[in-house]
Amino acid sequence: MSRVILEHANLIDGAGGTTSGITIIIERDRIADIVAGTVEKSIDDIVYDLTDKTVMPGMCIGHFHAEYNGLGTMPGFSLGSERPPGVTMAYAIKNMRIALNAGFTSALGTACVYDTDVCLEMAMAEGVCEGPRIVPCSPHIVATGAHFPATPWWIEAKNLGLEGGQCTGPDEFRKFIRLQAQRGARMMKLLPSGGHGFPHTHGMRNISLDELKAAINAAHERGAWIRGHVNYKDQIIECIENGIDIIDHADDLDDECIEAMIKHGTYYCPTIGMTVMTIRWDDTKPYFDFMQYYPKDEAYIERTGKILQRAQKAGVKMLIGDDYGPKYGFFPNFWGDEINMFVDEMGFEPAAVIEMVTANGAHFFNDDTGTIAKGKIADLLVLDFDPMKDGLKGFSDPAKNILSVMKSGIFARSTLVPKARS
């Protein structure tokens, strides 16, 4: 059996280590060994000389709506119901490929329509399409009438799109989540509050405490993760203390919230990308009109940077990703631009951001990804730059600067040429 051998590489292992002159040996879908210097090779080995190139783990999107495109473009339709299932799935397949080409070999689903995430996972397993391995998510789950769909009430639409998980009372929350788990969802998405992209009244509850507890317990009983779109301090802490796995957005994050996250081991996806875009863009730019409910205060960026730095230094496990793609589709630079925002706008060190996009997400994939170590899944990127020396700008142009993307030991795309066999 042939091996893939990457030699003379600069290595960023995702666990804080950087080493030069490393050889990585890949057998099937696993990293068989990592050694200093070179190794003895057989005639069947496929060898790549990566002198002056950097190898790092494949990245993980922590907040991903695979099917987003055209949301809000048809008045009177709930978000996500603008197109029939087949067309929606076609956009999802396209977006998965964009994400994979940008260096993301894993993704955490964050609400979808038509069971898109589950179908994507099935299609990839059968070799029908390619993209990041995904933790499939439910639609938005919320109390009836609290996070209302865009369809006028008098039409009585059956397809509520992303807002299809409307429940009344703890029993309905339990039942809906159990059915979602039965359909293959391994991530449930609650909306305990509005804000951050949705109309809201500050402090308004979308889910009662009893409903919240029932939902979290039901997800965990079925072996699923559960995450929450939540922005107000009292509800952030309430979600954390009741065992939610991921907090999304959390615009009111403060030191008390950080302390609670550390105590309970809660993961946090701050989703800064769309917010910074909204503040920095004007009404001539794509998405501006769609993002009317995002903050538009320049001082917000400075405040957010300070609190996120404190969260990171305290040990909160953070993820990257945001609600990209809703109106005009995905652009390959979205995630790379967000990676740079954490350095340029939030004041993070590059090493901390690399950990956010690699090792942190591995928790949701049995810690089998996210770092380069013997025995781990061979999800690797070969870069034409060194993030620790050159900064992270290269991620904003993945087609140019990410020379190859390997997922499970197979190159999803690559410009590398193997050495001639001797």
Question: In words, what does this structure look like?
Answer:
By secondary structure, the protein is an alpha/beta fold. It folds into two domains: 3-57 and 371-414, Urease, subunit C, domain 1 (Roll), CATH 2.30.40; 59-332, Metal-dependent hydrolases (TIM Barrel, Alpha-Beta Barrel), CATH 3.20.20. It is 30% helix and 22% strand. It has helices at 85-101, 116-125, 169-183, 209-221, 233-241, 255-264, 273-280, 298-314, 334-344, 350-357, 387-390, 398-401, and strands at residues 4-12, 18-27, 30-36, 46-49, 54-57, 59-64, 104-109, 133-135, 137-143, 165-167, 187-190, 225-230, 246-249, 267-269, 380-383, 402-407, 410-414. Strands 1, 2, 3, 4, 5, 15, 16 and 17 form an eight-stranded mixed β-sheet that branches. A hairpin with a 2-residue loop joins strand 2 (18-27) and strand 3 (30-36). Helix 5 runs parallel beside helix 6 (255-264). The two termini are 17 Å apart. The mean pLDDT is 90.
List the keywords.
single chain; 422 residues; alpha/beta; Urease, subunit C, domain 1; TIM Barrel; eight-stranded mixed sheet; six-stranded parallel sheet; 17 strands
Describe the structure concisely.
InterPro entries: Amidohydro-rel, Metal-dep_hydrolase_composite, Metal_Hydrolase, Metallo-dep_Hydrolase. The protein is an alpha/beta fold and 422 residues long. The chain folds into 2 domains: 3-57 and 371-414, Urease, subunit C, domain 1 (Roll); 59-332, Metal-dependent hydrolases (TIM Barrel, Alpha-Beta Barrel), CATH 3.20.20.
